[in-house]
Amino acid sequence: MTLKTIVRAVSLAFLLVVAAPAWAATQPPASQEGFVPVDQLPTDEEFPATPLVAAAYGIAWAAVLVYVWSVWRRLQRVDRELAEVARRLEVQRRSTGSPEAPR
Amino acid sequence: MQRTFPLLVLMCIALFGYAPFLIAGAPYESTMGLVQKIFYFHVPSAIAMFLSAFVCGIASAIFLFQRKPGADRVAVSAAELTVLLGLIVLVTGPLWARKAWGVWWQWDARLTSSLVMWLVFQAYLLLRRFGGPGSDKLSAAVALFGAALVPFVYWSVNMWRTLHPTTNVVPSLPPPMMGPFLWCMVAFLALYGVLLAVRVALEERRARLDTLYLALED
After folding, report:
1. Where are the domains of chain B?
2. Ordered per-residue pLDDT tens for chain B, 218 residues
3. How far apart are the CA of A22 and the nearest CA of chain B, in angstroms?
4. How far is A31 from chain B (nearest CA, A)?
5. Which end of chain A is more exposed for a tag (fewer CB within 10 A), N or C?
6. What's the pTM?
7. Which of chain A's residues have a Cβ under 8 Å away from the Cβ of B102?
8. Domain boundaries, chain A
């Protein structure tokens, strides 16, 4: 191996060491080969609290209002049925001549 | 009762009408920020749920041991309200947890025991509806177990290591947060009183209807 060959090899190695990072920096990033799951979102990607607070109060109110509506409907139905049965009892009482209908 | 009921309804409307202003004016919590404001509905509805479970349990015990039909009417009404209030608790809690803990749900002692208690009262209502003859006594026994769960649910945060805040949070609230909290507490208790009165009235009318049907058959 002559001195000339050694100088050439060292020069080439030096060139590779110095130029490789600069060359790599000009290349586009490697394509994504897969997704890596994480448990926590980065803080800047977390959604704001406003929809959660609005949903909490909205659902609480909706639950109460639906319940009130449901009880009101059931009361209406029972009242209608009470009136109907009381009317039938009255008719029965008149036809049989019994003294009074139960309250 | 007929005189005080409209007054109670008006008081309830006034309390819930002013509550949003108090909640909006309450200071933000340092670590949780805006989402902490769910607390002002979440905790009062949970305390009303505990009260309702106790009412159901005590009324069921009276029905079981003294055979008073009026107590059974109170019990079934309170069980339905326990399920309603439990639904509010179990929905508002995860909405708060999503932001505060980063997850919707954790199988920790407080959350799991609350869910189990809610399911027990669901079982009570299912038994009443589909259990057939004699289901009133069977469901009354279920209600006793549901009411017995209340102390476990309440102290679960102190007995086991949980993510859920402990029972020390409410007593240590600073005055600007304590005011709105107590206001909402009174509002939920008033709402509970109104709903229970209406629901018991429905049961009483159903009982009267049953009596009339029996008279009609005779």
Report:
1. 36-217
2. 667 888 888 999 999 999 999 999 998 888 888 889 999 999 999 999 999 999 999 999 999 999 999 999 999 999 999 999 999 999 999 999 998 888 999 998 999 999 999 999 999 999 999 988 889 999 999 999 999 999 999 999 988 888 898 888 888 899 999 999 999 999 999 999 999 999 999 999 999 999 998 888 87
3. 42
4. 30
5. N
6. 0.81
7. 39-41
8. 48-91
